[in-house]
Amino acid sequence: MYKYAPYSFSKIDLFNKCPYAWRLRYLENVKPEEQESFRVGRLVHEVIEQYLTELIRLGEQTNHSVLEKIVGKLDPDVQEKVLPFVPAIRDIVIPPGIKPYVELKIAVDNNFKPCKYEDESAFLRGRIDYSYIIDDTLVIIDWKTDNAPSPEKIEKDLQTRFYALLLGEVFPEASRFVIELSYLKYQKAYKLEIERDELEKVKEFFLKCIEKIETEKEFKPTPGDWCSVCGYLSVCPVAKSVVPAEKSVLELPERITTHEEALKLAGALKVVDQIRARIQELLKDWVAEHGPIQLSGEVLDFHKSETVKWETADQKAALASLLVREGVSKEEIWDLFSTSKTAVCSFLKRHNLKHLLEEALATGEKSVYERFCFRKKGGERI
Ligand code: SF4
Known about the structure:
Layout: H1 9-17, H2 19-27, H3 36-58, H4 64-72, H5 76-82, H6 86-90, E1 101-108, E2 114-115, E3 124-134, E4 137-144, H7 151-155, H8 158-170, E5 176-183, E6 188-195, H9 199-215, H10 237-242, H11 259-290, E7 293-295, E8 298-300, H12 313-325, H13 330-336, H14 341-350, H15 357-362
Parallel strand pairs: 4-5
Antiparallel strand pairs: 1-2, 1-3, 3-4, 5-6, 7-8
Helix pairs in contact: 1-2, 3-4, 8-9
The chain binds iron/sulfur cluster.
Iron/sulfur cluster binds next to helix 2, helix 10 and helix 11.
């Protein structure tokens, strides 16, 4: 028996990020402080759900005036948060002749047999933003309101694999799963394909994660990138040890003498970043309402700065032809559009040219520099 079932993807994911936060959320029922990014995500999901439900009711594939009505009824502050996502929502078109599922709730028991979402026997469960089946292909669409990660990260996305695993049990007729991660802010979608044979490995992976949760005893805080969106910062022991109310951060040791101390301070550094971001958010709200804050010689305010980017091929071509017209050589123009190692790697991957990686990198000039920063496990260390 699984004592902490039912498991959702977010429940498993939170444990993998920070067992301490998991304990607060799922064992002690402490409500996390809702982060602004989560709030916006929730609001946008609600609007899309209403919009698609209405389209299905009307039997239409798209209808912008329906969307405008839904957005028009929102409170002005909610509307402001949702508006940047509206162009992408307008682009949603329900394919003809299919039966779409909106916010489909699915669950399986511990024998991986489908059961009702609310059933006591539910072992794994999920709520899928939008899905439909065409022939033997199940299309799963996940709306994303955050920034798009690198294509490498998207390739490894676990949440969509978790959904494919569940949907594979609920729709045995599907042999192929096409997963679309739709980054609404950028109107960009990334597609992943999973064959049914791969699901066994996905199942093994999640069962191992669950085994770890079920046998965990310590539930220690593990600071990392996720601290930046953690809703438990105010009760986190790592945060408290960094900024104890009665002490000053100046009480840091003169130098680190043990590995444990180094580990503790590295974790503290992550949490300090989160505190900094939180202070910044609070100050932004204050300044927006009450005006700039004067510090000796400095003003904290929304200062305007301007930047111009040439991101598309058309924009680059327009600038290049302007410069060529004025007699600038093509070689000199190329310097303007210098590319990066990351851009070349992603380009090769996108075009299935990974075998050219070494050769392509050898065409550039390699330089080694030192940067003191956090880097993902397995990343190169100079
Ligand atoms: S702030 Fe970081 S270490 Fe602390 S509970 Fe949250 S995720 Fe865990």
